[in-house]
Design brief:
The complex is a heterodimer of chains A (255) and B (217). Chain A is an alpha/beta fold and 255 residues long. Chain A has 10 helices and 6 strands. Chain B is 86% helix and 0% strand. The chains are: A alpha/beta (255), B mainly alpha (217).
Chain lengths: 255, 217
């Protein structure tokens, strides 16, 4: 069953990428308020003279395990935020994750975003901060940076642990706009309670695709929905067959 | 090396590694594939260790420059110098006494890091209460639902709840077992599909951030 579902997803994704590349129509994609809020938050930083802070979470740099998807989604968002900051000449601080496997990628993306906006002279390695491998140190380091450097907009997208609670609360306390989300279900409560614009569950992946502006990437969202519909159909079928007692079918689909 | 080669070689490596890992997962156990996967995992750990060194370089550079620019007597200079001293202390004790499991390392860890980490976790409690107060205001339907569910489950958890109103135990358990599990599974499925699609886009070399780096190279 796993292999069949994976094959369906792989084929569907490929078909939608091809459709996007051929310029064919893609299904409509709803707007995510948090994506629009990024530009609003950066505009607010221009007005207030504060800085924009981006962090992808303590595990937001891990290039293995289930966090990889969140890391790539956060890197897409980072590229978007860095381009906007370069365009509007707003100071940007990027907190490197406490698990820093993606640190070279983070530096490369920020630098290339500044280059893409012809503002490479404004890029500095001091924009990227590392606070150590401990998540406690990571959260405290970010809180200190937010307060000392007058943060106006705090964007937290990625693989967050309990550290997000401290960071979001500290940003809120100093009056910064909080935008963020995580794919880690257990920490979504913190974003729901503390973020001004929150992304729930799979929305961080959708945000990562939307901000890229690349039709090939955005087409993946349609393929993702196909998978969700299959899951939903399987659940409904399971319910029906469970009600009429078909144990063989139920064991086949793994319920 | 041309830009094309620099773009193509990483793509080929990514695709080959991804296919091997996928095949290893779906096929019945084959020892050679298991060994290859194990090697890749070890490489990831080694790369992770190197990036930690890079992180330390960033940290030393940032705080070193801060001390040089603002002077050791300034507020920032004092904090930066404390950071660097503690960094040198931990690394030094680790190297001199033979790792992080020694009594000397444990001593400084338990007396410096542990209390600070405990304070951080303690602060989380107060932030949670303050955040819950703001989130559970009866101003929207969603906030009201969260408030009602939260109050019922909190009462179920404390002894006075079931003692004064026995059905609260059933209600609390029902909220935890049904609406909570249902919503959690929905969220987890959404996240899982998001991850699969990102992995497939990377496999097809269509992921924008990875493409951006490759093109810049």
């Amino acid at each position: 069953m796993d292999l069949v579902l994976f094959a369906i997803m792989a084929i569907t994704t490929y078909i939608y990428i091809k459709r996007a590349e051929e310029g064919k129509k893609l299904p409509p994609i709803r707007k995510i308020p948090a994506v629009d809020a990024m530009e609003e938050g950066i505009g607010r930083a221009v007005e207030t003279g504060g800085m924009v802070h981006f962090a992808s979470g303590g595990s937001g740099g891990r290039l293995s395990s289930q966090y990889l998807g969140m890391v790539i989604a956060s890197l897409n968002c980072l590229a978007h935020v860095a381009k906007l900051c370069a365009r509007y000449e707003v100071p940007l601080v990027v907190s490197a994750p406490s698990r820093p496997e993606a640190l070279p990628l983070i530096e490369g993306i920020v630098k290339d975003s500044y280059r893409a906006e012809n503002k490479l002279e404004n890029f500095s390695r001091d924009m990227i901060r590392f606070y150590g491998r401990d998540t406690g140190a990571y959260a405290q380091g970010i809180c200190g940076t937010l307060v000392r450097e007058n943060c106006s907009c705090n964007i937290n997208i990625g693989a967050w642990h309990t550290d997000c609670l401290l960071v979001l609360a500290a940003a809120r306390d100093i009056g910064a706009m909080n935008i963020g989300g995580t794919g880690r279900w257990i920490m979504m409560y913190a974003f729901a309670m503390l973020a001004d614009y929150c992304m729930i569950a799979g929305e961080i992946y959708a945000a990562g695709a939307l901000v890229s502006g690349d039709r090939g990437v955005i087409s993946g969202l349609a393929a993702e929905d196909v998978g969700k519909f299959i899951s939903l159909a399987t659940v409904l079928l399971g319910l029906v067959f469970a009600a009429i007692s078909l144990p063989t079918f139920i064991s086949f689909i793994g319920l | 090396m041309s830009a094309t080669v620099r773009r193509i070689i990483p793509t080929i490596i990514t695709t080959v590694v991804a296919i091997l890992i996928i095949v290893e997962y779906f096929l019945p156990p084959i020892s050679i594939l298991g060994e290859i996967k194990g090697s890749f995992t070890s490489w990831a750990v080694i790369i992770g260790a190197f990036t930690l060194i890079l992180g330390a370089v960033y940290l030393i550079r940032f705080h070193g420059l801060k001390i040089i620019r603002q002077g050791l007597g300034s507020e920032d200079g004092i904090f930066s110098s404390i950071t660097l001293i503690v960094l040198v202390l931990f690394v030094g004790v680790g190297f001199l006494f033979g790792g992080t499991g020694t009594p000397e390392y444990t001593l400084i860890y338990m007396n410096i890091m542990k209390p600070i980490a405990s304070i951080t976790r303690g602060i989380c409690f107060f932030y949670c209460i303050a955040a819950a107060y703001r989130a559970f205001k009866l101003d929207t339907f969603e906030a009201s639902a969260m408030l009602i569910a939260g109050v019922i489950y909190s009462l179920r958890q404390i002894p006075i709840g079931p003692a004064s109103f026995p059905p609260i135990e059933f209600l609390g358990d029902w909220i935890l077992t049904y609406p909570n599990v249902g919503a959690t599974r929905g969220g987890i499925v959404a996240v899982a599909f998001g991850s699969i699609i990102i992995a497939l886009r990377t496999l097809y070399n269509k992921e924008s951030s990875i493409k951006m780096l490759a093109e810049a190279a």
